[in-house]
Amino acid sequence: MLRAGAGLVAGGVLGAGCSAAGTAPHPAPDSAASGAAADPSHTDARTSAPPLAAPAPRAFPGEPAQITHGPRDKPRLALTFHGQGDPGIARALLATAEKHGARLTVLAVGTWLDEHPEMARRILDGGHDLGNHTQRHLAVNAMSETDARAEITGCADRLKRLTGSIGTWFRPSRAPTASPLVQRLAHGAGYPHVLSYDVDSLDYTRPGAPAVVRKVLAEARGGSVVSMHFGYPDTVAALPDVLKELDRRGLHAVTTTELLS
User: pLDDT of 251-260, one tens digit each?
Assistant: First the structure.
């Protein structure tokens, strides 16, 4: 009995040490071998309540099936980001936006969420919109119906697992607008609208931060939806100047949901 008691005490100490080191309270039997990241949406009911589910997609009456911009008569615009690439750059962009009181819309790629699942909650906790940019970021308009559906629902399923929602928006990959087929499939997956844009920053061409700033500020106006990207240092360097000039013009960067509400 003494040996058994000592074993239980030792087991308890080891268990506490593992929890402090960040292991999941109830890991799957093969989780260590597979190297799979813990699901950040998981919480132990004994210690804290699960996070609230993220907002679901909503229909905006009077808006087209494919939205390229919001109301032109209000001093607001949306900065939207393709969610992919170095998570350090993504965190820097989110922090810069939050420092300036701006809120972004992030369209995440499913494989990126697989590699960095913690980013889903980081985006939402910052007050930003989170949406679906397909599972693998391939040319979805050129795919068969079966493959295109899998790209849309694959990312939607990951968002649902991580946040409790399929995300507020869908944006097609490798195309500014969705084909009629992809639009129909997105609607069937639960997205009333496809989110496009009217200003392309071209930051993915790596033109340098000053060129990104010039391109955005030359075209952005009230109601604009601006396309930008995670993963590019030029974008990180450009964002403070973009936000400062927008503020000077009286234009506030809000989420796409806020832009259309």
Answer: 999 999 999 9
The pair of structure tokens assigned to 240 is 């403070």
At residue 172, what are phi and psi to the nearest 5 degrees?
A: -65, 150
Question: What is residue 253's DSSP assignment?
Answer: E
How far is C-alpha 119 from the chain's CA centre? 8
d(CA 201, CA 170): 19
Q: How far apart are CA 159 and CA 191, in angstroms?
A: 13
DSSP-assigned letter for residue 250 = T
In tens, the pLDDT along 73-96 reads 999 999 999 999 999 999 999 999
Cα separation, 11 vs 25, in Å, equals 14
Task: Judge whether 131 and 168 are in contact, CB under 8 Å.
Answer: yes
Quick one: which of 168, 171, 169 has its CA closest to 151? 171
Q: Residue 81: which residues within 8 A CB-CB, separation 6 or more?
A: 93, 104, 105, 106, 107, 228, 229, 230
Q: Which of 14, 31, 71, 36 is nearest to 222 (CA)?
A: 71
| DSSP codes joined into one string, 61-119 | TTS-SEE-B--TTSSEEEEEEEE-S-HHHHHHHHHHHHHTT---EEEE-HHHHHH-THH
Neighbour-count burial for 152-169, b at 16+ CB within 10 Å, e otherwise = bbbbbebbbebbbbbbbb
Bridge partners for 82 per DSSP: 107, 229
* pLDDT, average across residues 52-72: 93
Report whether 129 contacts 149 (CB < 8 A). Answer: no
Average pLDDT over residues 26-38: 34
